[in-house]
C-alpha cells in the first residue's frame, strides 16, 4: 500500500497514477511493494527530523526511513515541498519533474542504490531519469 500524507499546504492531484508508477518501479527492480508512506512537509518539519534522528542540522529535500525486509519494500519518505521548489529553480527544471525525481529517489534507495560516490550518483541519476520518463 502506498499512502500520501500532507503536513503542509500541498496536495498531489494524481495519487492513483503515482501509486501505479511507484509500484511498477519497485516490481521492475525485482522487489515487492509493502507499506510505503510519503509525508509531504515544509523545511522546518524536515529539519526537526534531520536533527532528531540523523543528528544533522541542515536543510534537505528528503529523508527516508527504510523498513525493507528482504524483497518487500517498505518505508516512510518525508519530502520538503519548500526544498523541492527551491531545487527545481536552482536546477532549472519544473517543480513537477523535481518532485518526481525526489519521490523515486527514496524508492531507489530502498532498492539498494546508493549516491555517495560519483559513479553511484551517476547510476542513481540514470535510474531516476529512466523512471521519470516512464511517467511522462
UniProtKB/TrEMBL annotation:
<feature type="binding site">
    <location>
        <position position="105"/>
    </location>
    <ligand>
        <name>Zn(2+)</name>
    </ligand>
</feature>
<keyword id="KW-0378">Hydrolase</keyword>
<dbReference type="GO" id="GO:0006364">
    <property type="term" value="P:rRNA processing"/>
</dbReference>
<keyword id="KW-0698">rRNA processing</keyword>
<dbReference type="InterPro" id="IPR023091">
    <property type="entry name" value="MetalPrtase_cat_dom_sf_prd"/>
</dbReference>
<dbReference type="GO" id="GO:0005737">
    <property type="term" value="C:cytoplasm"/>
</dbReference>
<comment type="similarity">
    <text>Belongs to the endoribonuclease YbeY family.</text>
</comment>
<feature type="binding site">
    <location>
        <position position="109"/>
    </location>
    <ligand>
        <name>Zn(2+)</name>
    </ligand>
</feature>
<keyword id="KW-0690">Ribosome biogenesis</keyword>
<dbReference type="GO" id="GO:0004521">
    <property type="term" value="F:RNA endonuclease activity"/>
</dbReference>
<keyword id="KW-0540">Nuclease</keyword>
<dbReference type="InterPro" id="IPR002036">
    <property type="entry name" value="YbeY"/>
</dbReference>
<keyword id="KW-0862">Zinc</keyword>
<protein>
    <recommendedName>
        <fullName>Endoribonuclease YbeY</fullName>
        <ecNumber>3.1.-.-</ecNumber>
    </recommendedName>
</protein>
<keyword id="KW-0963">Cytoplasm</keyword>
<keyword id="KW-0479">Metal-binding</keyword>
<keyword id="KW-0255">Endonuclease</keyword>
<dbReference type="GO" id="GO:0004222">
    <property type="term" value="F:metalloendopeptidase activity"/>
</dbReference>
<feature type="binding site">
    <location>
        <position position="115"/>
    </location>
    <ligand>
        <name>Zn(2+)</name>
    </ligand>
</feature>
<dbReference type="GO" id="GO:0008270">
    <property type="term" value="F:zinc ion binding"/>
</dbReference>
<dbReference type="Pfam" id="PF02130">
    <property type="entry name" value="YbeY"/>
</dbReference>
<comment type="function">
    <text>Single strand-specific metallo-endoribonuclease involved in late-stage 70S ribosome quality control and in maturation of the 3' terminus of the 16S rRNA.</text>
</comment>
Amino acid at each position: 500500500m502506498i499512502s500520501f500524507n500532507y503536513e503542509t499546504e500541498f496536495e498531489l492531484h494524481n495519487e492513483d497514477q503515482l501509486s501505479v508508477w511507484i509500484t511498477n518501479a519497485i516490481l521492475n527492480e525485482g522487489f515487492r511493494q509493502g507499506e510505503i508512506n510519503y509525508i509531504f512537509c515544509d523545511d522546518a518539519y524536515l529539519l526537526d527530523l534531520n536533527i532528531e534522528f540523523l543528528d544533522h542540522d541542515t536543510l534537505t529535500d528528503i529523508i527516508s526511513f527504510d523498513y525493507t525486509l528482504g524483497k518487500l519494500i517498505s518505508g516512510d519518505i518525508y519530502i520538503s515541498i519548500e526544498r523541492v521548489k527551491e531545487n527545481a529553480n536552482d536546477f532549472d527544471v519544473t517543480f513537477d519533474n523535481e518532485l518526481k525525481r525526489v519521490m523515486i529517489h527514496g524508492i531507489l534507495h530502498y532498492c539498494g542504490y546508493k549516491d555517495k560516490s560519483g559513479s553511484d550518483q551517476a547510476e542513481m541519476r540514470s535510474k531516476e531519469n529512466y523512471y521519470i520518463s516512464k511517467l511522462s
